[in-house]
Design a protein that fits this description.
Elements: H1 3-16, H2 22-30, H3 39-61, H4 69-88, H5 107-130, H6 137-168, H7 173-193, H8 196-209
Helix pairs in contact: 1-6, 2-4, 2-7, 3-5, 3-6, 4-5, 4-7
Length: 210
């Protein structure tokens, strides 16, 4: 296996790893209101997220920007929670004509902005892999491509599942959105409450009030 293939595999495994499911949750939250019929909208949305995390992944890995990893670890579940809550306010028309449905234009800059945060999270893992390696451009490219392949796989699974439940099993699209987004919001809230930085901030706040 070449170095390129190794980092490609590491990128794919990182975003699809069930043990680090925060990024998986975010990708699912992004496409929770869509089915296969909406693939063009999903493509634009995922591209916005990709642009965001690609920029910060590169900048952070190249040491152009610096950040506190513990802050990013807290911000990532917050982006998931916000996305899931926004989904619940998405207006799904009562008509069965899915083509009449319009996504809020705010979803795209939101995906781009949150992608910047997730890219910093990806870079923390990649930097730990690179160590003191002199040439990082090839590993960076391969790792990012691996992330995209994993992301595409997650999106396809969610869209196919949504299509089957909504179009074949006739589950209302609104119900599917509420259930999926509600589960994601609950899991994201759990990640936030169990985050060490968040707990430290709460402890500091309570100590000051007392």
């Amino acid at each position: 296996m070449t170095e390129f293939q190794a980092y490609l595999q590491l990128g794919f495994e990182h975003i699809t790893d069930p043990n680090g499911y925060d990024h998986i949750l975010f990708v699912i939250a992004l496409c929770a209101i869509y089915t296969l019929r909406d693939w063009k909208k999903v493509l634009i949305l995922v591209t916005a997220f990709t642009l965001g995390h690609s920029v910060t992944l590169a900048l952070a890995t190249l040491r152009v920007v610096s950040f506190r990893p513990d802050v990013i670890e807290l911000l990532i579940p917050i982006t998931i929670l916000i996305t899931a809550v926004v989904n619940m306010f998405h207006r799904i028309p009562k008509t069965t004509l899915v083509t009449q449905e319009k996504s809020s234009p705010l979803r795209y800059p939101l995906a781009l902005g949150f992608g910047l945060i997730h890219g910093l999270g990806f870079s923390t893992y990649l930097q730990s892999l690179l160590g003191e390696e002199s040439s990082i451009f090839e590993p960076l490219l391969a790792f990012n491509l691996g992330l995209e392949l994993g992301q595409i796989l997650i999106v396809l699974i969610v869209l196919i599942l949504a299509f089957g439940l909504i179009e074949l099993a006739r589950i209302p699209k609104r119900t599917w959105n509420y259930i999926l987004s509600g589960i994601i919001a609950g899991m994201a809230l759990s990640l936030i409450l169990n985050n060490e930085l968040f707990q430290s901030m709460l402890a500091t706040l309570f100590s000051r009030n007392n």
